[in-house]
Design brief:
The chain has about 300 residues and is mainly alpha-helical. It has helices spanning about 1-55, 95-130, 130-145, 150-160, 165-190, 195-200, 205-240, 255-260, 270-295, 300. Helices cover about 75% and strands about 0% of the residues. This is Peptide/nickel transport system permease protein. Keywords: Cell membrane, Membrane, Transmembrane, Transmembrane helix, Transport.
Length: about 300
């Protein structure tokens, strides 16, 4: 009997040790994943910061002027004199990519800011007011969401014509329904909370309740969506520029560089490759930053 009791005790002890080891291994694996995710987000932030520096002071970094035509180096492959090669005018591709960063980032940031402001205001109004206001605004958003965002931006840009303000307006208009629905969903879930009712009972105005109690708690999902939407805006802007609906300037953006180099893919692959890599790198970087922000701001995801 004592032997059986001893065996049972040993089995329980072994099971407890195995459980502790499994829990320790799971915790270590989770920590490694967190550190790896943080490392990726740090590298992505560094890349975005570098591109912002390119956009702010391209003349300090670019080796040549973007309009300098070196006729003795036309369609030169990447080398020591021109690290990323030259185009059919003899312009340095590295300088063009660096100078094109300004217009590309300006399109992305401006369109996201305009979309967040317009969509956030409409979503906040619909979510807080409710009733017919909510119904009318959200049905309008539903109508816009039935049209693919890229197609809507393309239609608006084609109707307005090329130009920086027009392309920003087109991309922003296509993103408004998404931001409006996210903001409206967050506010609908907050407006019936106890502290909101208490603030109203104490005589707080609607503007005070929205500004002090609702918006600070509803803005996090919109911020994450805007971060990820920045990459989509850059990609959409590049697509519109590729189709000839972008900015009209002697310094092309990344999408215009792709469009200019598509006819030379067989003889000068570098004209399209490096602007495409710049677009891909930026989109990937902001998506990684958006994922990290989501994990930081949403405890349910980080749990």
């Amino acid at each position: 009997m004592k032997a059986l009791f001893g065996i049972a005790t040993v089995n329980r002890r072994d099971a407890a040790n195995h459980a502790l080891q499994a829990e320790s291994q799971g915790w270590k694996k989770q920590k490694r994943q967190q550190w790896f995710s943080l490392l990726l987000a740090g590298l992505a932030s560094a890349l975005v910061a570098l591109l912002i520096v390119f956009a702010l002071v391209p003349q300090w970094i670019a080796p040549y002027s973007p309009t300098a035509m070196m006729t003795d180096r036309i369609l030169q492959p990447p080398g020591t004199a021109n690290w990323l090669g030259t185009d059919y005018f003899g312009r340095d591709i590295l300088s063009l990519v660096i100078y094109g960063t300004r217009v590309s980032l300006l399109i992305g940031f401006s369109s996201v800011l305009a979309g967040v402001l317009a969509g956030g205001i409409l979503g906040a109004l619909a979510g807080y007011a409710g009733g017919w206001t909510d119904t009318i605004i959200m049905r309008m958003m539903d109508i816009l969401m039935t049209i693919p965002g890229v197609l809507l931006a393309l239609a608006i840009a084609a109707a307005l014509g090329p130009g920086l303000p027009n392309i920003v307006l087109a991309i922003a208009a296509a993103s408004i329904p998404g931001y409006a629905r996210v903001m409206r969903g967050g506010i609908v879930g907050l407006r019936t909370r106890g502290y909101i009712e208490s603030a109203r009972a104490l005589g707080a105005s609607n503007w005070h309740v929205i500004r002090r109690h609702i918006l600070p708690n509803a803005v996090s999902p919109v911020l994450v969506m805007a971060t990820i939407g920045l990459g989509s805006s850059i990609l959409t802007g590049a697509g519109l520029s590729f189709l000839g609906l972008g900015t009209v300037s002697e310094i092309p953006d990344w999408g215009a560089l792709l469009s200019q180099g598509r006819g030379y893919l067989t003889v000068a692959w570098w004209i399209c490759t490096f602007p495409g890599l710049a677009i891909t790198s930026f989109v990937l970087a902001v998506n990684l930053i958006g994922d990290e922000l989501r994990d930081r701001l949403d405890p349910r995801v980080g749990a």
